[in-house]
């Protein structure tokens, strides 16, 4: 069953929203100051914590948060802007033409694990289309979100393996992995369950 993200936000049923940006993002931005410049896309931005963290750390960057749920975008816009970041309602899988081939960076957090597994190749292509050649995808990928009654096949968040990520992103020459590691900082309860991966967008057509 497809998740009704608008209803989830309207009902305040958003357990993935921890009230702050992912700790690994803040740490990466601090260590790599001045690297995430130009235009930056944050798909599935929700209430915009990660968008604002990037905008605050890199004021010269032009950060766009994208979410399919109008209620999420409205929630993000209610926060005080920190550096001219913007939010748009839209579907990553039907990306507006003015968002294609535009971004130097895409930040991934909780979007890939939230979409239906059957759409993951579409996600890869959509991110490839959003980036300029040589642009970068930086993301925290949730490998093992399963706890208690939440098991594989039970709905988002969906887990993945490093082998699956390598297959989906690197086949057909779309991306190459530049570096990856276990993020030293994360939300409580996710220790050791994620990978922070930096990829470069290659010019080959998908």
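Sequence proposed for the structure above (206 residues):
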């Amino acid at each position: 069953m497809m998740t009704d993200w608008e209803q989830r936000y309207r009902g305040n049923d958003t357990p993935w929203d921890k009230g702050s940006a992912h700790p690994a993002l803040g740490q990466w931005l601090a260590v790599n100051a001045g690297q995430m410049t130009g235009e930056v896309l944050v798909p599935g931005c929700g209430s915009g914590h990660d968008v604002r963290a990037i905008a605050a750390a890199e004021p010269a960057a032009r950060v766009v948060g994208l979410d399919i749920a109008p209620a999420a975008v409205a929630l993000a816009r209610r926060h005080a802007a920190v550096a001219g970041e913007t939010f748009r309602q839209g579907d990553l899988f039907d990306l507006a033409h003015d968002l294609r081939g535009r971004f130097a960076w895409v930040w991934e957090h909780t979007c890939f694990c939230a979409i239906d597994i059957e759409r993951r190749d579409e996600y890869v292509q959509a991110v490839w289309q959003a980036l300029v050649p040589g642009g970068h995808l930086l993301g925290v990928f949730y490998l093992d979100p399963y706890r208690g009654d939440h098991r594989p096949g039970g709905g988002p968040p969906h887990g993945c393996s490093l082998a699956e990520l390598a297959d989906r992103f690197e086949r057909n020459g779309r991306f190459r992995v530049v570096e990856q590691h276990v993020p030293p900082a994360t939300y409580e309860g996710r220790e050791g369950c994620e990978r922070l991966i930096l990829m470069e967008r290659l010019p080959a057509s998908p």
